[in-house]
């Protein structure tokens, strides 16, 4: 077989230079017969010999098996051929099965379905990669619903495909469109279809309950029959091609905000190629079924234990609650915007939904509450210790003291200092005396204790020269009221802060009380 260069030389010399076959043969050292053949047929191909295939003895057997099951894989067919003596490889078997199936495959034809207004919604999910929250990736999904008559579209992006998220997206779509269609068509979604056997479909009980609440009939397409819901398939592709390119997002709320604006300004205002109208103009909301008055609660629900550090875990983050719930299990309800904690039916705390991971929320707020409770417990312990030292009578005195405008904490601390200085018995006696006189305050108690410590010896009575005067008897006079009046007048004239801080130390220029003067 000649090369391409030799063939070109033969044709050039014969047709361009007008050389004879003999001359060309002498010049190229070829036979004249070869030159003549290549002048008649320039592009000659080498004859191929038909080689026998290792599959040839088994092709009839393979054909019988394919009649029984046309979808039998090459691996299964090879397993059955080995005991019959097949020694070939898997590749030639795959190529042969592919060729056989290509010859027997018949292209199917379909009748286009055009549902009437309010007849049919089609629903499907789309996958759109992930969003990053400070290095933490969250998968991003698009819930898509289309009203088949008008092609009006609803899209909501989520970070989850759970049942609760699936149902919440339905509710948002129904509210967006203003009603519900008679039938809702799905692919074989795991959140809706529990089992599919031929034409028999078993939906999840929870999903059927949701369908009853909104009065629609769920329909499931056949397995691997995407053409049965072709309108939503094209809608998902339209979202990928028209909305998604050349956009940047900060978080899930930003994605849905841009999506809503795109639906209002672009998707539902474009002139549809098949209907010749815009979806917004073709849409007939009056044909839809009315929505229920009470919207059911389909938030994500779980329970978590409150640990000693006031924290409980949810979705990769830690949330804080009030200290009184430590050791208890609380109910958590969450959606795309908020996370709320409940003790049975009582709401405890609510946070904005955090899509990052490893965050702690609410620590500063509830740790301050815990510290304030610890301080209150410490003050209560001081009061109990004072009552145990002074006896039950002091409890009534402290209760009356709390009704005044004085700081009970400071008064208790000053009384404890007096107990350390004068002893419990002396302070208890002074408290009883002050309670009887209606004098409530640590400074009154301190003044009584100083009077008792500085008490002078009683002088003998004065004798008059007139014996009748010495026989006169006077009524006993108590100066406690006078002391209370003097001390109260002094408190009103002084600065309140100074009154609290100038506690129990005597002053050198302080005037003596009435009893000392006596």
What's a quick, concise take on this entry?
The protein is an alpha+beta fold. Helices cover 44% and strands 16% of the residues. The protein has five domains: 4-40; 56-104; 120-287, Ribonuclease H-like superfamily/Ribonuclease H (Nucleotidyltransferase, domain 5), CATH 3.30.420; 300-361, no CATH class; 371-458 and 478-517.
What does this structure look like?
The chain is of the alpha+beta class. The protein has five domains: 4-40; 56-104; 120-287, 2-Layer Sandwich (Nucleotidyltransferase, domain 5), CATH 3.30.420.10; 300-361, no CATH class; 371-458 and 478-517. The protein is 44% helix and 16% strand. It contains 20 helices and 14 strands. The protein has helices at 4-16, 21-28, 32-40, 59-68, 74-81, 90-104, 163-177, 205-214, 230-243, 252-267, 279-282, 363-390, 393-402, 408-422, 424-437, 442-453, 467-470, 480-493, 496-501, 514-517; strands at residues 120-133, 136-147, 152-158, 183-186, 193-197, 200-203, 217-220, 300-305, 311-314, 317-320, 329-334, 338-343, 346-352, 360-361. The protein has a five-stranded mixed β-sheet with strand order 3-2-1-4-7, with helices on both faces. Strands 8-11-12-13 form a four-stranded antiparallel β-sheet, with no helix packed on it. The chain has a three-stranded mixed β-sheet with strand order 9-10-14. Helix 12 packs parallel to helix 14, helix 14 (408-422) packs across helix 15 (424-437) and helix 14 packs parallel to helix 16. The protein is elongated and about 190 Å long. The termini are far apart.
């Amino acid at each position: 077989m000649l090369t391409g260069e030799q063939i070109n030389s033969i044709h050039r010399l014969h047709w361009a230079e007008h050389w004879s076959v003999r001359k060309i043969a002498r010049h190229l050292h070829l036979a004249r017969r070869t030159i003549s053949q290549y002048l008649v047929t320039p592009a000659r191909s080498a004859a191929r010999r038909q080689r026998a295939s290792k599959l040839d003895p088994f092709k009839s057997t393979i054909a019988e098996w394919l009649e029984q099951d046309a979808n039998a894989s090459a691996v299964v067919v090879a397993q059955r051929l080995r005991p019959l003596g097949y020694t070939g490889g898997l590749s030639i078997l795959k190529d042969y099965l592919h060729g056989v199936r290509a010859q027997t495959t018949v292209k199917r034809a379909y009748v286009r379905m055009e549902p009437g207004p309010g007849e049919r919604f089609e629903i499907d999910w789309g996958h759109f990669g992930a969003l990053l929250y400070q290095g933490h990736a969250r998968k991003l999904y698009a819930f898509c619903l289309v009203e088949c008559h008008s092609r009006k579209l609803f899209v909501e992006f989520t970070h989850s495909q759970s049942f609760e998220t699936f149902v919440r997206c339905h509710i948002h779509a129904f509210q967006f469109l203003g009603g519900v269609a008679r039938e809702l068509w799905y692919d074989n979604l795991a959140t809706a279809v529990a089992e599919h056997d031929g034409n028999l479909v078993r939906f999840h009980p929870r999903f059927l309950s949701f369908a009853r609440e909104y009065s629609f009939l769920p329909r499931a397409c056949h397995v691997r029959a995407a053409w049965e819901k072709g309108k939503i398939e094209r809608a998902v592709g339209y979202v990928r091609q028209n909305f998604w390119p050349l956009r940047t997002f900060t978080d899930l709320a930003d994605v849905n905000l841009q999506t809503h604006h795109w639906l209002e300004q672009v998707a539902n205002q474009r002139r549809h190629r098949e209907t010749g109208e815009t979806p917004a103009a073709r849409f007939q909301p009056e044909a839809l079924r009315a929505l229920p008055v009470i919207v059911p609660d389909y938030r994500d629900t779980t329970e978590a234990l409150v640990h000693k550090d006031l924290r409980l875990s949810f979705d990769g983050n830690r949330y804080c609650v009030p200290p009184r719930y430590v050791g208890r299990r609380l109910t958590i309800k969450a959606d795309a915007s908020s996370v709320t904690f409940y003790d049975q039916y009582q709401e405890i705390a609510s946070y904005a939904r955090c899509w990052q991971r490893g965050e702690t929320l609410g620590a500063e707020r509830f740790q301050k509450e815990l510290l304030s409770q610890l301080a209150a417990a410490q003050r209560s312990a001081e009061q109990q210790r004072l009552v145990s030292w002074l006896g039950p009578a002091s409890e009534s005195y402290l209760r009356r003291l709390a009704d005044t405008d004085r700081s009970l904490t400071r008064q208790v601390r000053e009384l404890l200092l007096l107990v350390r200085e004068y002893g419990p018995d002396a302070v208890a006696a002074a408290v009883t005396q002050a309670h009887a006189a209606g004098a409530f305050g640590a400074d009154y108690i301190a003044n009584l204790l100083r009077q008792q410590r500085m008490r002078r010896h009683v002088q003998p009575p004065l004798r008059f020269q007139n014996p009748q005067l010495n026989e006169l008897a006077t009524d006993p006079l108590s100066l406690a009221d006078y002391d209370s009046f003097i001390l109260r007048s002094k408190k009103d004239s002084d600065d309140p802060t100074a009154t609290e801080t100038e506690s129990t130390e005597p002053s050198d220029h302080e005037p003596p009380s009435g009893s000392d003067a006596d």
